[in-house]
Design a protein that fits this description.
The complex is a heterodimer of chains A (360) and B (350).
Chain A lengths: L9 H14 L4 E7 H10 L1 H4 L4 E8 L1 H4 L2 H11 L4 E5 L13 H6 L3 E4 L3 H10 L4 E8 L4 H13 L5 E8 L1 H9 L8 E5 H7 L5 H7 L3 E4 L3 H17 L4 E3 L11 H10 E8 L3 E10 L8 H4 L15 H5 L23 H4 L4 H8 L2
Parallel strand pairs in A: 1-2, 1-7, 3-4, 3-5, 5-6, 7-8, 8-9
Antiparallel strand pairs in A: 6-11, 10-11
Helix pairs in contact in A: 1-12, 2-17, 7-8, 8-13
Chain B lengths: L29 H15 L11 E5 L2 E10 L5 E2 L2 E2 H14 L4 E12 L4 H18 L2 E10 L7 E11 L15 E4 L5 H9 L17 H7 L5 E5 L5 H13 L2 E5 L7 H10 L13 E4 L4 H9 L8 E7 L6 E4 L5 E3 L13
Parallel strand pairs in B: 5-6, 10-13
Antiparallel strand pairs in B: 1-2, 2-7, 3-4, 5-7, 8-11, 8-12, 9-11, 10-12, 13-14
Helix pairs in contact in B: 2-3, 5-8
Chain lengths: 360, 350
């Protein structure tokens, strides 16, 4: 299949792996930002094939994983109200809140539906004028244009029954937070290809320069990943630290300009709490005041709700690349994909679920 | 010896993490298994049921019978490649014949929702008839109930089936031995993806069609070759669930070769877009046969001569290592675990 087979071609991948092995003179610690990359690495076994050369640590780039517990509780609170149709990407349905998950809320009578696009939620709002339709707008820069477009459409059509519960997060502030942490071990980043497809890679240049770390924009197929690693180790070995793009078929330096425009029309930058990490200044999006009528946290007055994480779960340290999932005492015992304690075990992009599924 | 108490005679009410039924309890994965272990088997278990095969084997004075039941709740009721009617016939026929039995008789029960157009019911019942004729089974008893609008989704169908097991034939999920070969009769995930992409709200079109078909013809064309130890049709939970169950039932390991597993391009494309693994997706016209190594090539050849087995391929081997586990080697030579599916296949977020 075009655009898949060539990037999964074992001959090409082995060839690049050989080049990595020839290049590396000492073990390097490289973080792949995105959970999609983590899964592809584990599934293809790249981490196994390079275990003597490189330590791949898994980054915070799983949107489901970093959505704070209180947001899930807020979602549950809104979903349980009469007259609400609560819509969400599928992954979020199984993330445990303080008392239950959205699937359980659905089994108790809440109208919870999973959609593939926020525009489907707008359509549901159009077709159900007597219902409040809420979309759970989580994610990184990747999902922001679609979520912004949904509000834009609802605003233009005066669909006052459509709103979004927003928990949008941004990659660059999280990268900086990790690098400036005293316990940081990360020496280079594989930047998340799809985030960069939207935002471009200009905004990574100051980070590479300030912290002296190579940042290589990397795709998701095995050949993309090993190529990204090769470019990264070449920089590390030579003491370079610049931003390079190894996902040229999807990413340009300036990114997707119309997408960025709609994001900035609807959203503004705000401080945002990350599950397991804490509040990172200027690390998220919130809905601008002009569109406040479509902000579910205001409409349903849920923004005051707070929640506490299960104590045993170390997803925070995992998301920061400090620990590996199998270092967690609950891993595979109290915490499994069917009974997850933390979001990193739930999401198909979560590091714990990747370990559980592919390695154990 | 422990003392018998009143409690041990009652139906034990288990403490489960979920206190209400979730959709995932019906998805054929770990939560389904949990429901069996904690509710159904403690209350209903007996020697026959406890085997947890897709069909019961009943000893009678006239020989051994294969007996199975299945309930069909697919939504939408019409999908590319079939409808709930032929699915209900084929599904039970397939369960009955996976131990080599020749299916003969079916019962059918309908639960109809108030307001269902009779024209739709007629179309579905016509499909039932055609599917039964094609499979060579007769529908010998039936029942109809109607419920208020909203109490069910258009219509649900239950079918049960009976077949005769040829004398001397012993095919069971517990028969796998190290060295046996795993044969898959064709491409994976056609049915699951056909239904998923036909579902309301998923606004993209594909050419994917359900593979719903009765497998008794294919089974009777490969049985005479001999050497078949186990057969299963990988429906709900997909090939991953069936292979895990086989590995556990027989106390053996299974090693698959990812490169050998056939998936149609259109199905693979839909799976890639939706973030779904074809190995965990439902099939309704495929079987997995576990055969003696020296019979593998002849069984494969016989399978390929049947229209439902044209794309049959050997996908793996039974091993003595890692009992109860399924491993898969990818094109880079790295092995990973193919786990039991958890619950609903949730599409990924981005």
């Amino acid at each position: 299949m075009k655009y898949l087979d060539e990037y999964r071609n074992p001959k090409i991948i082995r060839n690049i792996i050989t080049q990595i092995k020839e290049t590396v003179t000492r073990p390097w610690v490289i973080m792949e930002i995105c959970g999609g990359q983590t899964h592809s690495i584990m599934r293809s076994g790249i981490n196994e094939l390079l275990k003597n050369q490189i330590e791949l640590v898994h980054g915070p780039g799983c949107p489901v994983c970093v959505t704070p517990l209180e947001l899930i509780d807020q979602a549950l609170e809104i979903a349980s109200r009469p007259n609400v149709i609560f819509t969400s990407f599928g992954d979020m349905l199984r993330v445990p809140g303080s008392t239950m998950d959205l699937q359980e809320a659905r089994s108790q009578g809440a109208d919870v539906r999973f959609v593939y696009s926020p525009l489907e939620a707008v359509k549901i709002a159009r077709e159900n004028p007597d219902k409040e339709v809420v979309f759970f707008a989580v994610g990184f820069e990747t999902t922001a244009p679609g979520n912004a477009m949904a509000i834009h459409q609802a605003f233009n059509e005066n669909l006052t029954n459509f709103s979004e519960l927003v928990s949008h997060v941004l990659v660059p502030p999280a990268m900086e937070a990790l690098l400036s942490s005293p316990s940081n071990r990360v020496q280079a980043y594989l930047a998340a290809g799809h985030v960069c497809a939207v935002m471009g890679w200009e905004e990574y240049e100051p980070i590479a320069a300030k912290y002296k770390v190579p940042i290589v924009v990397t795709g998701f197929e095995p050949a993309d990943l090993v190529q990204g690693i090769l470019t990264t180790v070449r920089q590390l070995e030579r003491g370079k630290y610049k931003v390079e793009n190894e996902y040229g078929r999807a990413v340009s330096r300036a990114g997707n300009i119309p997408a960025k425009k709609i994001i900035h029309e609807i959203f503004e930058i705000t401080d945002r709490k990350w599950r397991g990490i804490g509040t990172i200044p200027q690390s998220g999006f919130k809905i601008r005041e002009k569109y406040a009528a479509h902000d579910a946290s205001l409409k349903f007055s849920v923004s005051h709700m707070e929640a506490r994480e299960p104590e045993i779960c170390i997803s925070g340290e995992i998301l920061q690349g400090l620990k590996k999932p199998d270092a967690c005492p609950a891993f595979g015992r109290e915490c499994t994909p069917e009974h997850p304690l933390g979001a990193t075990m739930v999401s198909s992009e979560g590091a714990c679920s990747a370990y559980f599924r592919y390695h154990k | 010896m422990s003392k018998t108490t009143i409690e041990s005679f009652s139906c034990p009410l288990p403490k489960m993490d979920y206190t209400t039924i979730q959709l995932a309890h019906g998805a054929g994965g770990r939560l389904s298994a949990e429901l069996l272990e904690k509710v159904f088997l403690p209350c209903l278990g007996n020697e026959t049921l406890n085997r947890l095969d897709d069909q019961a084997v009943l000893e009678t004075p006239g020989g051994r019978l294969s007996f199975s039941t299945d309930t069909f709740v697919v939504s939408p009721i019409f999908f590319p490649g079939g409808n709930i009617g032929d699915l209900a016939v084929n599904g039970t026929v397939n369960d009955v014949c996976m131990n080599g039995a020749v299916p003969k008789f079916l019962s059918i029960g309908f639960v109809l929702e108030e307001g269902l157009p009779i024209s739709e019911l007629h179309e579905i019942v016509t499909s039932v008839r055609n599917a039964a004729d094609k499979a060579g089974v007769r529908i010998v008893t039936g029942d109809t109930k109607v419920v208020e609008k909203g109490s069910c989704d258009k219509l649900f169908i239950n079918t049960s089936g009976i077949g005769f097991i040829p004398e001397g034939l012993h095919i069971s999920a517990a028969n796998l031995k190290p060295g046996n070969k795993i044969i898959l009769s064709g491409t994976l995930a056609d049915h699951g993806m056909a239904v998923l992409t036909a579902r309301k709200g998923l606004s993209f079109q594909t050419t994917v069609r359900s593979d719903t078909a009765a497998l008794n013809g294919l089974v009777s064309s490969i049985l005479p070759v001999g050497g078949i130890n186990a057969m299963r049709d990988p429906t709900r939970g997909g090939a991953a669930a069936v292979l895990n169950e086989l590995a556990v039932s027989s106390g053996v390991g299974i090693e698959l070769d990812e490169r050998k597993i056939p998936v149609l391009d259109a199905v693979r494309g839909a799976c890639e877009i939706l973030g779904i693994d074809p190995l965990y997706t439902a099939n309704e016209g495929k079987l997995i046969a576990v055969v003696e190594a020296d019979a593998a090539e002849t069984v494969l050849k016989a399978m390929r001569q049947h229209p439902l087995g044209e794309n049959a391929v050997i996908i793996g081997t039974v091993t003595g290592d890692n009992p109860g586990q399924v491993l898969m080697e990818n094109s880079l030579g790295v092995k990973r675990i193919v786990d039991m599916p958890v619950g609903e296949q949730l599409p990924r977020i981005c």
